[in-house]
Amino acid sequence: MEQLHAFLRDHATADLLPWPAQTAAAQRFGTPLALVEEAALGLGLLPARYQRNRQAITVDQQLTLFQSRVAVIGCGGLGGYVIEELARLGVGTIIAIDPDVFEEHNLNRQLLSSPANLGQAKVAAAAARVAEINPAVTLVPIQASYAPDNGGELLRDARLVVDALDSIPTRLALAQTCAELEVPLVHGAIGGWYGQVTTQFPGDDTIQRLYSRWVEGKGVEQHLGNPSFTPALVASVEVAEACKILLGLGKTLRHRKLFINLLDMEFEEVKFVRHLVPVDE
Known about the structure:
Radius of gyration: 20 Å
Number of helices: 11
Largest sheet: 9 strands, mixed
Mean pLDDT: 94
Oligomer: single chain
Helix content: 40-55%
Shape: globular
């Protein structure tokens, strides 16, 4: 390890470590890129790919992100963008959970889809994409449906869970699983020109109250559709929430829902008073 550290210091430019130096270190010492990146960050060296983060995220915080493990439930419209942004942000381990394969109707909005990978498992495409854009990040692909009976096993090592589902019953079950595991959950939902994001911490019941008036049936996206821009924006808000939670920064959407109306370009905040009905302010 001392030889690796010396190599990294010798090949850094000031406190930036270029990508060729990371790959050279991995080859020379037979070390996975993930371990090289963690070692560099531990030395206070910032991999050069993150240099545009540094005014918002310190080297120590970048190390915290790299040592974090985030689960993304769903790898479709929302999930594809969430995975892309988490990987580019430098979150070290991403657990991607989705049972589905790509179909042609996914091509209008799902970042990971392409004509070439129709019929391919979404989690396999997620793994290939992360390996392409940030090989130091580990993506754990799980081609399975989340369910209450397997949720504890799927999510047990996650520090944070991001909801990219399209089913209200499954989303409610996920909120319950996260509560039992005492893991924060970032919720996002989309439909047509509209979207919403909220964050639920252990002990909260925001998502349950958010859908307290739900009756059986498909979600609004089934009749509103989903253009390309809505999942991109809502996923970005979810990733911003995830970053803040992992780093303990800023003010999250805890006890608040951000409602996004892109048709009229309106953003509305709905506050939730604990154990009471939501009130508009």
